[in-house]
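Bench log, entry 3. Co-assembly request; chain sequences pasted below exactly as received.
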Amino acid sequence: MNTHSTTNAALELLPRLCGADIELGNFIVGDERAGGTGYEASRALLAEIDGLPLRHAGYVNNWWTAPSPAPRAAYSLPSGSGATAGAWAYNPQDVSRRFLLSNGGCAYIDLDHVELCLPEVIDAFDHVAAWHGMLRMMKTALDSANQKRPSNRKIQVLVNNSDGQGNSYGSHLNFMISRRAFDNIFWRKAHYLQFLASFQISSILLTGQGKVGAENGRPATPYQISQRADFFETMQGPQTTFNRPIVNARDESLCGRSTMNDPSAPTRLHVIFFDSALAHGSALFRVGPMQLILTLLELGLVNSRLILDDPLAALYNYSRDPALQASAELINGEQLTLIELQSAYLEEAKRYAAQGVFEGVVPHYEQILALWEDAVNSFAKQDFMAAARRGIDWVLKLMAIERSMDQQAGLDWSSPEIKVIDHLYSSLDNDGLYWAYESGGFTEPLVTPQRIAHFAVNPPQDTRAWTRAMLLRRAAPDSVFSVDWDTFTFRLRGKHNWPSYRTFDLSNPLGYTQAEAQHIFESTDDFAQLLDALESDSTERTLTADAFCRSLNNEEKTK
Amino acid sequence: MRFLQRFNDNQQPQGSSDGDPGSDGLLLQLRSEGDSLLAAGDEAIRRALAGSNSEAFLRTSRQQGGE
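Structure output for the full assembly:
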């Protein structure tokens, strides 16, 4: 094992920036149409979400889609989807993507699911607030869509990851790590991959949303901790819709194009493992502990004792044991329960926290560790009530289900009513059980309503999401030709009024923050001049860890 | 099978495992408070159970696999 002192000092300082792309279940209640109603529901919902670029007939989308091979008339567009009309570039996994002027995130349709992408944040607590802010925005869209629909054809939105009928959809996280760490995990150091996979598996204790029953051909079981466990079938791979891997190897940095051969350049780890979270606790534990463990991986602080011998078998067994008695074998022959394995990772993080490893890298790491320890301890003491109040979704859902059984005699785990309760726990609408518990004060909030409201309409101040949102607000809507996480293309007016296409680079996820860019936005009303000024002010077009260190040092000097 | 009942039953005799003589009382208080707060969801559960045909609801909730 490497030691802290032997690692690259620059890499230690690269914050574990986090984004997310999260699909929702969506359908029309009472409509048993062959083929389902996700197509119509998702489009009616997305039509209620404003964003850019605007879609024009004949529009050729940018790299993530191809020109539509089919005429628009081939599609039967549902009423109310005018905003998406003409957006039919033919990629069913990325339909009509629009970036949000409000918070710098985006929304689109992925295989008939609305997908919400959160703006990049650095702080795990900001992730929780941004996620709930995005859910608030989605609830507004749902209400608006349903107001236009007949009462017997209302849309239902579920913040979950499986329909109970063998179909799963993702709730992905994206973490910024160095190219070196990425290559170590996937191509150079097998124990790094196993360490990460074993940690993720142990994390279902705090991040699972809970699910009634089994899917994907797995043996029947009453209740599982993880909604996604049944759907993972291999250790690693780039795929996400079949043969799903515990650790996803998709290599797409979203930090510009020139990072492949630079070990200190940032890239993205695309994490497809976790369930969607409603409660603040589970939402925080998807991100905060991952930031800590990824920092250990970045530094080579990998304790190979904590590696499961058969991660997939362990995942299935742990998930199917909400009584938390099952154990799984580590490669050294030890048998650990889910609580013990998660505790071991927690202790590892605490040990290195004491050495200052997370200082300046993971904001509020001490608070994250304290909450993590408190949650694990509640399980160690078999205090489910405490775990539920700390905001662990699978426990709260289990409580709701068991109360349902108390309320109505004759219900058991095979009753369809119980599966309905499972689904309605995550309903975004007023019938959502989670919201009843939250508003009733059962779950302890980790972020304030004001912070959630802030992120519903504002971007994070400390990442490039701030400038993305501000450029979207400032640009003439027709001038926004394409947008991606790390680039814009604007269609401006050139000489003699001819259109002139101009690309603006946002490669650096930590650049163009409010502190860096606000004064530039305030310096001119002319859009082309604004782009000129932003570009000329940007000393580092592409982030490297070394560059980030330099910028930190410069910032320190100016204080 | 009731998972949570099993846990709570297990917990009764070992409530003060942390050695704090007052923790039994605190635990009971927290539980009692939690139980009353959990009731906040009971009305939502009642509405869900009284809702339309559960089997039909589940059929219409079918999704396409995603991501």
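Chain B touches chain A through 47 residues (CB under 8 Å). Residues 23-38 of chain B form the longest helix (16 residues).
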